[in-house]
Design goal:
Blueprint lengths: L2 E4 L5 H14 L11 H10 L3 E7 L2 E10 L8 E8 L8 H15 L4 E8 L3 H9 L3 E12 L3 E11 L1
Parallel strand pairs: 4-5
Antiparallel strand pairs: 1-2, 2-3, 3-4, 5-7, 6-7
Helix pairs in contact: 1-2
């Protein structure tokens, strides 16, 4: 059974094996498709509040970060990003990590969670976040440049915790 724990810097080599193929595809994250390993480390580990990994049999199957979405008067809202390895998709890890992230967010005194850019063509994510109680707060028309579909809409999804 998969367990979630806080990531350590030395976990990043395994996280990179999940991060890099997802970002290179360019279908779900706005990061440049040629994001370097060093830049990915900065984005996923260094510039966030916490990073977690989903581990089974000493193998990292998924990862997520949790960070403050805004400063000052918006600092009560956090933001998360989730990635699951291609081999582990469809096993409920996205649900497990999202539920875990909401628990951690509450422990850190965040009052809400917001996903800033959920690509509408990522139907699994849209459906999962909706199932887990996230509402669509807005739509950014043609807010994401998909590598094969062209400009597609992106959603801002939000949940009061």
């Amino acid at each position: 059974m998969a367990q979630i724990r806080e990531a350590l810097n030395q976990d990043f080599d395994q996280i990179w094996k999940i991060f890099q193929p997802i970002v290179v595809k360019g279908e779900t994250y706005p990061y440049p498709r040629n994001t370097s390993k060093e830049e990915a480390f900065r984005l996923w580990i260094k510039e966030v509040h916490k990073t977690f990994i989903c581990v089974e049999n000493n193998e990292i199957l998924g990862t997520y970060y949790l960070k403050q979405n805004q400063v000052g008067q918006g600092s009560h809202v956090c933001n998360c990003g989730y990635m699951v390895s291609a081999e582990a998709r469809g096993k409920g890890l996205g649900t497990l990590m999202c539920q875990h992230s909401q628990k951690v967010a509450r422990e850190l005194n965040y009052k809400a969670m917001q996903f800033n850019l959920v690509v509408v063509s990522n139907v699994q994510a849209v459906n999962l976040w909706s199932k887990l109680g996230f509402e669509t707060a807005g739509k950014i028309s043609k807010g994401f440049q998909h590598p094969t579909l062209g400009y597609v809409d992106a959603l801002v999804m939000y949940k009061w915790l």
